[in-house]
Recover the amino acids of this structure.
């Protein structure tokens, strides 16, 4: 029985196919006007559900494409919004650097911070200027806010900069009014105050008030005089009857620096007018 049913079904399919072929041939042989009327009648009756389904499928496909486009635009807007504060900060820093260049007038080499000079040492970084640009070892490296560090080694096209946070960094410094002199160095290498400096070697009888601005003194001839180092925020310790050591909040956080100036000479004019607190452009 099953075999006979299969044969019957196969014959029926064949007959339907042959009928469709004959109807197609007959329709093709009709005059154009009659053929158009026949096609329109088929579209309104037999083919109407299929044509409706096709239109709905096209609408769904177009809606999915529009949805994908809107989703892509939303993702792009969200990504741009994520980087907007960083871009604003970068633009402000670049404007400050341009202003610093105008105030310095000459005696500097602009450079971009490329990456850490040593993957295991986050306290040094590589800059995009070297001996061919006139960079020399021990040159001061600054940003619009003040001292970043100094050049340690120089290659033809790049240089390694040691930041003020490096354990071996030392600089001769003074109070802004020139009343107190000392040596600034990183305040320890661990703990909550690792990103502070300390001003040591201050005579016990001399008191430095909180908020006093600390500048490089130029003594020793390594760093030019007048580069902002930071602001005194408290006393780190004292040797009774001998000296005090003061905590200094740095003017620059090296981790946020992307472009720097490498000084090839002392700043022109009053350093307080050259370096602006917070890196504001003139």
């Amino acid at each position: 029985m099953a075999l006979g049913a299969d044969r019957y079904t196969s014959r029926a399919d064949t007959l339907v196919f042959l009928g469709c072929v004959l109807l197609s041939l007959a329709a093709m042989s009709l005059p154009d006007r009659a053929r158009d009327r026949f096609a329109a009648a088929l579209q309104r009756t037999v083919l109407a559900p299929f044509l409706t389904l096709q239109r709905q499928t096209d609408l769904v496909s177009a809606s999915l494409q529009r949805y994908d486009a809107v989703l892509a635009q939303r993702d792009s807007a969200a990504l741009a919004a994520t980087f907007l504060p960083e871009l604003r900060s970068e633009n402000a820093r670049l404007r400050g650097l341009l202003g610093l260049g105008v105030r310095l007038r000459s005696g500097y080499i602009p450079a971009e911070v490329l990456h850490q000079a040593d993957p295991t040492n986050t306290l040094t970084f590589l800059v995009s200027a070297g001996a061919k640009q006139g960079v020399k070892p021990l040159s001061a490296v600054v940003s619009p806010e003040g001292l970043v560090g100094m050049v340690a080694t120089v290659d033809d096209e790049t240089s390694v900069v040691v930041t003020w946070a490096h354990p071996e960094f030392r600089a001769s410094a003074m109070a802004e009014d020139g009343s107190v002199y000392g040596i600034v160095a990183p305040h320890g290498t661990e703990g909550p105050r690792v990103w502070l400096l300390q001003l040591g070697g201050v005579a016990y009888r001399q008191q430095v008030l909180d908020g006093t601005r600390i500048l490089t003194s130029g003594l020793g001839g390594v760093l030019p005089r007048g580069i902002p180092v930071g602001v005194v925020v408290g006393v780190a310790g004292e040797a009774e009857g001998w000296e005090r050591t003061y905590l200094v909040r740095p003017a620059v956080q090296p981790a946020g620096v992307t472009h720097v100036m490498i000084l090839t000479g002392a700043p022109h004019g009053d350093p307080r007018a050259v370096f602006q607190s917070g890196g504001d452009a003139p």
Summary: The chain is about 35% helix and 30% strand. Confidence is low (pLDDT under 50) at residues 278-282. The first strand starts at residue 108 and ends at 118. Helices lie at 2-29, 32-44, 48-104, 271-274.
